[in-house]
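The methods section describes the discrete structure representation at length, but only in general terms. What matters is that the chain and its backbone geometry are given together, residue for residue. Nothing conveys this as quickly as seeing an actual entry. For illustration, here is how one protein appears when written out as sequence plus structure tokens:
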Amino acid sequence: MPVALHTATRSSDIDFDWIHHKTMAPVGYKRIDKSTGKEVDTEDIVRGIAIDRGRYVVLGPEEIEAAFPKTTRTVEIEAFVDAGEIPFVQYERPYYLAPDGRSAPKVYALLREALLATRRVAVGRVVIHAKQHLAVVVPSGRALVLNLLRWGEEIRPVDRLELPPAGTKAAGLKPAELAMARRVIEDMTARWNPDDYRDSFKERIMALVDAKSDAGDVETVGALEDAPGRPAGAEVIDLTELLKQSLGRKTTAKASPRSRRSAGHARGRAAAAR
């Protein structure tokens, strides 16, 4: 089932550029040798991974390229899990998936409705901008959302924090205190509407910018040096659920113990549509 990948969010950050306060010249990007203070050409820079203080393993471009994940423009589904099992702290960035192709809408709807009926989400891997991500496909209304996940090793364990024990008695909470807290929550309960919440800092800064611009309080600054570019990545991701092949593997798995062991590692793959 070919699908197109669409960014589901947009940045609302304010873009501050660096400017020298005396000359009104832009402060750009330079690669400086920290031992000499001199600028270094791009072709003289190699990449290294620190293994100890002051000790690095240097990797060449070919070695780094060989380690890049080979799967592109696809989503490899590895498992279906209960929707509530993935903690919110692991979700990172959402993308909308839209059917792309004449036959795609029906298969798209089939996957969406099957996930809704089973209350499952699809966990897999995807490569975006030459970087491999853990991801989950989640039904959201009429859409399927591909949400990038943080790897498990990126999540800090909560047991390192000094937290009160779970449960009202263990935490030393009195029934009257809990009742009062519940009343406050009930009184402040409202329907969720994201438009009710605005970035007040951005609005105040942009109002100040507009006021100064209207008053003619504007400085002339030279062209900024281009920031280091990012490698181009895939803009379209294709998702294919090979139902017949998956069912065939399960049938074969029941035939022998060896097949059952192999089936545990089977993956649903997404075929790329060019």
